[in-house]
Amino acid sequence: MTGILITFEGIEKCGKTTQAKLLYEYLKEKGIPCILVHEPGGTKIGEEIRKILLDKENTKMTPKTELFLYLAARAQLLTEVIFPSLQEGKIIICDRFSDSTLAYQGGGRNLELEKINQINKYATDKLKPNLTILIDIPVSISQERIKKEKKDRLEKENEEFHKRVRDTYLFLAKRAPKRIKIFEGNKSIEDLHLEIRTKVIQFLTQKGVI
Q: Is there a contact between 12 and 141 (Cβ–Cβ < 8 Å)?
């Protein structure tokens, strides 16, 4: 049996990490085999790469260096965790995946989307998520939430950067509407979880997984 890859995407502080955890806990309670992973990270090597990427002291990192570091972490996570779990028939819930690279390094850093797409296909052996949950919030709300916490290297970017990231996410969703489902993120945690949960259960039922 082949497993299912469900990814969560969105700009900074959209609530995707919270929602990914809630979905994982819900499926686990229902006895559905699943795992929760995040990017960049999820492996020993990936976590070391994560430290480099998010360290606010690394101000001289070039866009291409950033791109390849994300892809390296993803390739490691796929080999160590995601591919074996898919072969075991599990549902993988992943907090960020390929769409993040297109949005942040493509949109945010102004690197060519199609070139990113090509090298990402190589890094992932052409694996695509079965379903992507895109939690969308206005950049203004994201910026207000960022102010309340310590900022990492990407969170420190200016508002225009984050606007480009959001615009790219919405462009990707328009290009792949069957896979990428947009959810309004400016709601209560409970209401948003219920909406996402309903969509995921519907999707898994259609796939014959449950």
A: no
User: Reading across the β-sheet that carries 180-184, which strands appear in turn?
Assistant: 34-38, 91-95, 4-9, 131-136, 180-184
* Tens-place pLDDT, residues 175-202: 999 999 999 999 999 999 999 999 999 9
Record the pTM: 0.96
Outline where DSSP puts E strands in 62-168: 91-95, 131-136
Query: What's the farthest any 2 CA atoms get from each other in the chain?
Result: 48
Give me the helices (H) in 113-158, please.
113-124, 139-147
Q: What are phi and psi of 165, to 5 degrees?
A: -60, -50
Percent of the chain with pLDDT over 70: 100
Q: 113-140 burial string, b = 16+ CB within 10 Å, else e? A: beebeeebeebbeebebbbbbbbbbebe
Section 40-66 average pLDDT: 97
Distance CA 101, CA 68 (A): 10
In this structure, are residues 130 and 207 in contact, taking their beta carbons and an 8 Å threshold?
yes
- Exposure string of 40-67, with b = 16+ CB inside 10 Å and e = fewer, is bbbbebbeebbebbeeeeeeeeeeeebb
Domains of the chain: 4-206 (3.40.50.300)
